[in-house]
Amino acid sequence: MSNGLKQRHLSMIALGGVIGAGLFVGSGAGIAAAGPSIVFAYAASGLLVMLVMRMLGEMSAANPASGSFSVHAERAIGPWAGFTSGWAFWFLLCVAVGLEGIGAAEIMSGWLPGTPEWAWVALFMVIFCGTNLAAVKNFGEFEFWFATLKVVAIVVFLVIGVLAILGVLPGSEAPGTSNLTGEGGFLPNGSEGFIIGLLASVFAYGGLETVTIAAAESERPAEGVAKAVRTAMWRIGVFYVGSMAVIVTLVPWDDPAVAEKGPYVATLDHLGIPGSGQIMNVVVLIALLSAMNANIYGASRMACSLVARGQGPRKLGRVFNGVPRIAVLTSSFFGFVCVLLSYWRPDDVFAWLLNMIGAVILVVWFFTAASQLMLRRRTEREAPERLVVRMWLFPGLTWVALAAMAGVFVLMAKEPDTRVQLLSTGSLTVALALAGYLLQRKRAAAPAGVGKG
User: Fold this and answer.
1) What pLDDT sits at residue 453?
2) Which of 143, 193, 238, 378 lies in the 20 to 30 Å Cα band around 256?
3) Which residues, 6 or more positions from 93, have their beta carbon under 8 angstroms from its beta carbon?
C-alpha cells in the first residue's frame, strides 16, 4: 500500500481518535450514574488507556504494520491470536460505522424535518466510501480537518468553562464547590454508581488504535507513530478529564438536561450561551462523520492485513493503486447492513450486534498487553535499536495494565447491564479463537506453499 499520510495527518488522526462522539454525548450517562466522581472515573480509565497506547506505540514503532495489534499478537502469541483480535476489531468498526451513520442522520433529519434518515446514512456512506476508495491522502485530509474542528470546539468549551468557574465570564458567577459537594456529595450513588461511570469511561476511549494502523501508510512510519503516541498522552488528560471537571463543577450532576441534551450542550445552556445547542450539534455531527471515515479506513486496512497473512479470503486483500478497494467496499457494505438491521430488527438482531461488540475493545487491549509483554524481550535481543518508544517501568506497568483489564472484566460481570455484553463478546471471542486455531492447524499441516494466502 502507499505511503500517502504525512506527520500532520498522523498527529490529527491521533487527536481525532481521542475526541469522539462518545465524549460529547455518551459521557452524559456516566455523569448521571457517578455524579462528580466521574472525574476520577475518567482519570482512572485514562491512565489505563495511556498504558495501552504506550505499549502499542512501542510495538508499532519497532514494527509498523497496517494490522497493528493483530500483527503484534500473531508474532507474539500465534496466528490464532492475530486472527481473533483482528477480526473482532474489524467487526467492531463495521458495526460502529452503522451506529455513527444513524446518529449523524438523526441530527440531519432534526435540521431538515421530513427527510428520511436512511437517505442521509446512504449519502454519508457513499461519501466516505468514496473517500477511502481514493488515495489514502484523501482520508488523511478529511481526518485532518475534521480533527481540527473538533479540537477547536473542545478548546473553546474548556476556555469558556474555566472562565465561568473563575467567575470572570460575563453574566456568570463562580459556582465554587457547590455542585461538587451538594446533591448527595462527590459520590452520590456510592461505589455502584462509580463503577457504572468507570465502565462508561473505559469504552469512551475506543478509537485511539487507528493511529497505529495509519502509521504504516505514513512517510516515516516509526517516527510518525512514536510522535503521535507521545502527544496523545497529555491530550487524554486535558480533553477528557478536563472536560468532565468543568462540566460537573458548573452544572448539577443530576440536572435532567445532562442526559437528555448531552453534558456539553447542558453546560453551555446553563451558562446562557446563545445558540449553544445547535453549535454543539454541529460539533457532534463532525465527530460522528469523522468516526465513520476513520472506522471505514481502519476496518479496510485490518481486513487487508489479515488477508495478507492468510487469514481471510484472498480477493478481499487485492490492492488497486495503493488502496485495498474491495476491503473498503466490503467494510462499508457491512456497516450499511447494520444500519438496515437497526430499522428492520431493532429489538433483537441489532441489539444482539451491539452486545457482541460491547467489550471487544477490552479484548483488543488485553491481546496488546500480552503481546508487548512477550515481544519486548525479543526485540531487546534481536533489534534493540528499534525500541524508539519504550513502555514505562517494564514489565511492572504492563502487569498492572493486565490486572486492571481483568478488574474491568470482573466489574462488567457484576453489573446486569454489562454482563450481557461481556457474555456476548466472550462468545464472539471464543468462536473467533476456535476458528483461528483450526486455521492455524490446517496451515501447519498443509505442504509447504499450500494455503499460504
Assistant:
1) 39
2) 238
3) 295, 296, 298, 299, 302, 331
